[in-house]
Amino acid sequence: MRKILVTGGTVFASRYIAEHYVNFIPEYTVEQKAEVYVLNRGTHRQVKGVRLIECDKNNIGDKLKGYEFDVVIAVNIYTENEMRELLEGLSVIRDFVFISSSAVYPETLPQPFTEEMQCGRNSIWGDYGTNKLAAEKYLQERVPWAYILRPPYLYGEMNNLYREGFVFDCAVAERPFYVPNDGSMKLQFFYIGDLCRFIDIILRVKPEQKIFNVGNKKVDDINSFVKACYKAVGGKPQLINVYKDTEQRNYFPFYNYGYELDVTKMLELMYDPIPLEKGMRASYLWYSEHSDAVRKKPYFEFIDGELGV
User: Can you give the residue ranges of every domain in the chain?
Assistant: First the structure.
């Protein structure tokens, strides 16, 4: 039985990944379900079936002493220090996957971003991107066989960020949707289930390439994103363009920053990522029953007070 450690395991990506491996039986082996461990402070509800290693990721110390894992999936590791604590706490490092971010690419680079480009500070994402990059570099120095995945915007079941959930709420209430400018700003997405699928693939195939951009081949824009969310609910949006000089994060759940990742290398291994409309339907079905798990923001208050209905 494989032993898998997932850092985090309580919200969105890390929780989904932990639950995925609790229930996953690899088709390519005769193994049974994995023995899944999660590393977190124990302050949130845990996924049913996981084994909790309770500690702070910034102070792991000897909490992992006596454990040996076949796979480590580092999800909620955001800084070099957190990566150092994790690696120094592990007695054996076999397969290792780090969920990094597309925020490691400076916005000044030509698009689409490729894995070979020189990474650095992105002024939109700030310290989040530079800290992720520092964690990447430390991992590469210590564990050169580790895999690093750089996703764009993740979406799907268990998303605790008020992104597609906000659009779902607009659709359910049959409200018009306020779109920044003409709605043509690029938004690239990746379904959380596809992230798990790709992790499964690289653990099976063990490709020589160690860093992968992951994401949908088709890059959407604001308009198509909103339409996909409304369609998941069963509606069609009335789009209202907002050209006035106001911060779009007050009424729209993404920064004023459009970008595109080159995912050619990912597609060589996984050619069929789930289309946005299909993924949004799965996301809505989850959200319709778990909206209280999402950290909502006061978009409606701003829209009603500043933009009009």
Answer: 3-154+190-213, 160-189+217-258+274-299
Residue 1 is predicted with a pLDDT of 82
The string of pLDDT tens digits covering residues 85-126 is 999 999 999 999 999 999 999 999 999 999 999 999 999 999
Place of tokens 């693939």: 201
- Give the span between the Cα atoms of 28 and 205, in whole angstroms: 10
Q: Angle 106-6-41 (CA atoms, 0-180°, nearest 5)? A: 100
Q: What angle do CA 300, 305, 306 make, to 5 degrees?
A: 100
What pLDDT does residue 245 have?
83
Helix 222-233 crosses helix 164-172 at what angle (to 10 degrees)?
A: 50
- In the numeric block, which tokens belong to residue 10? 């309580």
Tokens of 101: 């971010």
Q: Cα separation of 42 and 9, whole Å?
A: 10
Asked whether 129 and 101 are in contact (CB, 8 A), the reply is yes
* Helices assigned H by DSSP within the chain: 12-23, 80-89, 127-142, 164-172, 192-205, 222-233, 264-267, 276-290, 299-302
Token digits for 274?
A: 């789930």
Q: What class, spelled out in words, does domain 160-189+217-258+274-299 have in CATH?
A: alpha beta
The crossing angle, in degrees rounded to 10, of helices 127-142 and 80-89 is 30
How does strand 3-7 pair with strand 35-40?
parallel
- The residue count for the chain: 309
